[in-house]
Amino acid sequence: MSGIRREITPDPRPSLVNRHLPGTAQVERLLRKEGRAHVFNDHETLERVTQAIIERGERTGVDDEMDDYERYGLYFSKAIGYIIRTDGRRTPLYYSEIKIVKATGEYHAIPRTGPRRTR
Questions:
Q1: How far apart are the C-alpha atoms of 102 and 70, rounded to whole Å?
Q2: Positive or negative CA dihedral for 60, 61, 65, 70?
Q3: Most CB within 10 Å of its CB: which of 31, 32, 95, 97?
Q4: What pLDDT is stored for residue 30 in this prediction?
Q5: H helices then E strands: how many in the chain?
């Protein structure tokens, strides 16, 4: 079965969304701190990707009592974002995941290079 089949709600913290949108203060802070940031192309792409994962995403990661999150991901045929680096280089991203807090059902989308590595 694919898609998310339970009640979920967007995480109310704007900082979680803004850390994945180009030109935001959160991305600038990530660039200074980590030297890179994973961002969506724009807000519309984030919304489109989120809906696609909710409808067709595959469960990823580990099914572990110690893991506080559920993750669902999906590959896309066109780049949905990029990794931006402090030197200006960009690497296209074709995968995204939704990370859901198990206890609350709150989620946010993250552009990634691929599924989270399992332990």
A1: 6
A2: negative
A3: 97
A4: 94
A5: 3, 8
Q: Where are the beta strands (DSSP E) in the chain?
A: 9-10, 36-40, 58-60, 69-75, 81-85, 90-93, 95-101, 106-112
Whether residue 103 is predicted with pLDDT greater than 60 in this model: the reply is yes
Question: What is the predicted pLDDT for the residue at 60?
Answer: 87
CA–CA separation, 79 and 72 (whole Å): 18
SS3 17: helix
> What predicted TM-score, i.e. pTM, was given to this entire model?
0.89
Let me know: does 96 contact 109? Beta carbons within 8 Å: yes
Residue written as tokens 């399992």?
118
User: In this predicted model, what pLDDT tens digit does every residue of 14-70 receive, in sequence order?
Assistant: 887 889 999 999 999 999 999 999 999 999 999 999 999 999 999 986 556 667 889
Segment 75-80 long-range contacts (CB within 8 Å, at least 24 positions apart): 76/49, 76/52, 79/41, 80/40, 80/41, 80/45, 80/49, 80/111
What phi, psi does 2 have (nearest 5°)? -120, 165
